[in-house]
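Anyone up for a design puzzle?
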């Protein structure tokens, strides 16, 4: 006896075009903000580098040199964060296109919309994110 073919393969989440458009708009707004922050940080960076090259600084003995070194280190961290945030947002935008946006990378469940509203580039649902810690 022939059994009707069963579609046992997990049905991928069908992206809702309206949802996709909303996600894209949100991601674009976030990305604009992140790009602006990055540009501002890069301006600060240039300013610091220029001011530190115009004055001969001795990081260890000149208090101003130490301050500049500290500022540079802080800015480097912030620049790094802004860049990785931009990267995350770009990846999230690609996931919208691929139709996998809003799906937890870890368990395959949908990520709560409140979480996506707060963190549009989130890759995992709240329970997987908290389980990892
Ligand atoms: Zn999950």
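Challenge accepted. My sequence:
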């Amino acid at each position: 006896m022939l059994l009707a073919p069963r579609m046992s393969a997990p049905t991928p989440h069908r992206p809702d075009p309206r949802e996709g458009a909303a996600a894209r708009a949100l991601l674009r707004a976030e990305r604009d903000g992140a790009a602006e922050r990055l540009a501002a940080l890069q301006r600060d960076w240039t300013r610091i580098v220029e001011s530190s090259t115009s004055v001969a600084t001795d990081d260890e003995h000149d208090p101003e040199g130490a301050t500049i070194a500290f500022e540079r280190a802080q800015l480097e961290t912030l620049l790094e964060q802004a860049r990785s945030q931009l990267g995350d947002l770009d990846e999230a935008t690609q996931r919208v296109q691929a139709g996998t946006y809003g799906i937890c990378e870890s368990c395959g469940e949908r990520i709560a919309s409140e979480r996506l509203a707060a963190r549009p580039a989130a890759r995992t649902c709240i329970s997987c994110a908290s389980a990892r810690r």
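A detail worth pointing out: Residues 102-133 form one domain.
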